[in-house]
User: Fold this.
Amino acid sequence: MCCFQHLSPRTYNTIDFENNDYLQELRKVDTDVAQCSSCLIDERRGNQSHRQAHILANANNETRQTKLTTLTYNCENTCNLACITCGPRYSSKWKPDYQRMNIEFVSFEKQSTHKNTVYKDLDFSCLKFLHFQGGEPLLTDDHLLILSKIKEQNNLENVVVSYNTNGNFLPSPETLELWRQAKLVKLYFSIDAVGEQYNIVRNPGEWHKVEQVLLYYRDLDLPNLWIEIGTTVSLANVFYIQDIINWRDQFFSKTHNDDEIKIYITFAGATSYGGQVLALNNITPAIKSAALAYVATVSDDVIKNTLTSALNSVRGSPAHADTIVDYLNKIDQFRGTDWKTTLSKLHTAIHE
Ligand code: SF4
Assistant:
């Protein structure tokens, strides 16, 4: 299960991993499973989807077992940020702005482990991979409760634990102690911009604070720690990708363990209103042309090729300009930001 899929309309008090109707449906990897429509749309556009990446990553696994070997745990949607391409499904912080913008949304209340105690009855003895995502997983106790349960079952040393985190939070002493006992800890920091662009793209986050947290993790003496930057590319940040690369190269190129820190690109999509408006496929011909010229100067070849191919795959329409400007103007109005200045390259491209 992952954060892109449509969640089960049913709530389960216990889970039979072999026979659960919802999980059986999801296992039909070779058919167009409705719950996976977000990934299927990505695949039709020629991008590698989250689903495909996961299948590839597990290609060498011995057999497909119906045991709990991999768990992706969606923590509640509590988040301290309201990123410009996110929405209330993932961030509680977004709800007031959706209401002010009169955007319809389904009130989405995820349950934390305080209410959702399914994990208490799970057999973690065969677990190998555990991934936490939110909201912001480090804002909840969910991960601590589950890691402690795995430790109780004497399997923590065999588990690769990973997190999508927004890089705003330091680990508690208890978290660090549990991480030390895991096989490997992977932290995927969601960093869509640096400097003043960060403050608008990941509002109300403040880059100077986030940078200090990231440097703490860079210097953390944790032998089993591995780090990657995850960047969600949208029209808001496509003209500022080189700034992220420059910052990575200068300050964040290696962990304390001397492992290289890479940047992994994904694309904003229709999981929220902002994601839809700022997705590359909502581009205008003028923005596309300016973005292609900018991307050609990007210093990292993998990122350059990924972005060039994504930009070339979208056609664009001049009619999209009004929606983009309207959305960003509303964001400014509610948050006191100034996108025309901070995202001046996008502003210029829109009006070319
Ligand atoms: S940090 Fe993640 S969950 Fe929070 S608003 Fe940003 S994208 Fe959404």
